[in-house]
Amino acid sequence: MKAIEVQTLSKIYSALKAVDGISFSVDEGEIFGLLGPNGAGKTTTIRMMLTLVKPTSGSIRVFGIDSGKFPESVRQISGYIPQEVSVDGDLTGYENLLMYAKLYHTQREERDRRIREALEYMELTGRENKLAKTYSGGMMRRLEIAQALVNKPRVFFLDEPSIGLDPSAKNAVWKYIMNLREEFGTTIVVTTHDMQEADTLCDEIAIMNRGKIVVSGSPEELKAKVGGDIISLGVRSGDCSNLLQGQGRILSAKPDLGLYELVVAEGEKAIPVILDSLRESGIQVDSVSLKKPTLDDVFLKYAGVRIDESGTWRETRRLRRTYRRLG
Amino acid sequence: MMLGSRYLSTVFTLAEFELRKLKHDFSEIGIRGVQPALWLLVFGETFANLRSVPTGAFSYIQFLTPGVLTQSVMFVAIFYGIMLVWERDLGLLNKLLSTPAPRSAIVLGKAFSAGVRSIFQAIVVFALALFIRVPLNLGVLEVLGVVAVIVLAGMCFSCLSMSLVPVFRTRERMMGIGQAITMPLFFTSNAIYPISIMPPWLRVIAIFNPLTYVVDAMRALLVTSDFQALPLDIGVMLFATAIFTSIAALFFRRILD
After folding, report:
1. Do A100 and B99 touch (CB under 8 A)?
2. Which among A245, B46, B111, B124 is most buried, taking Cβ atoms within 10 Å?
3. pLDDT recorded at residue A327
């Protein structure tokens, strides 16, 4: 049995297709990532899986349970960390955990032990009687993970788990998420617009853009799809697209800025050849760099833009506001 | 059976943690006591000197105290929706809705929280009234009755507020709508003057105003000991609360979208 099976799932707000007929499945014990820019439909998808948003069409099964028919059973085995901060700052860390232990109907005799364990596991022992609003951003995230741990979810949904955290807190959160899977075999679904996060955490990734899954696979498979190494060139004078075409596959070309990206099989060997041919044509090269493909390049290949170029903040905010009005 | 007890446990859990929050920071209750203090100490004391309001065998300040008590409960409850908007913007509401709890249990739990919170609001007004020596019936049964009425009123008006959230959505608009309805509810009720001196058109409105029944119940318990209309008062409150709760529960999911 698959942990999650999603079939032709759509969510339409008036004329706006937030999620547009996506299908995917997640194996038990897998860390599955929905990667895409802001406004791609990731959060709507995760909220539909959690039965917070009603799908317009399509079906979702979580450990075989039809989420449309038994939303409360699905929620009982799920844990969730929304994108926004979801700890109650006016309660202590311990109280935050206790409240959710009670809301998930954890046995009275087990509650305290499970809370202590979760606090210890997330290295929050000693701070549990302080109001949560005195915690740092990283501690709040850890408290949120602890909250979910108390209820031992079979599937854990995290919406942009490291958003707004500094690099060291980010790494810590990733470590905890991966440990969770190792120790408890929890199935984990994360959404992220951070390609590094997706690359580090996920076994499987579905890349989303404008409500659709454009490509999916393991990070390695996806990166292999780019087809090799990427050479970035900065040149002066003239359009050299034609010249470069013979050397490899052009990933992006901005002749007016003199910037080109080229995919080649073996970057180290291709660079001297390219440089020679450009020099022969009298084109001056300002800069050249070589890198291995990232998920961002995969996104570029399949969506036509880079993740951070697609969906600016303002656009996303407008989109969200529209959803809210239409909802 | 198990479902029923789980349902109730959700309702009580939400109220429990509302109280814990209150325990951590009691200042809010004090700040919210300023307005009723003004009504009782400034308005009440001055108006009483006019001796123009027919309040029967009881002094005006006795007549006014249950009105101010009700008003303070209603004022706090009617802005409860703002807290919901706040919790939605923070992500707390999303998280709460992702628990196995049924929607209606969450609405009821929130309403009950507002009701329980109202008790502490009322204690401030009580303390004020006792401080200026307003004669009130303070038997055990009366006080228990008053507590029940306060909780019910808090639930009633907080549910009214929560059912407005899906329509008005933002904090600013909720603030605006709250202010737009509190004063009319207050002035078209029998809180600061009896229905008998109202012009006929206003009497009609007063009869359809749920606040009238809350004030009437409070007044019966605390001052007049005339319990004839009490069943009607409680009945109307229960009815109004049921209607507002249903509306709020029905449209609760829309708060998130």
Report:
1. yes
2. B111
3. 42
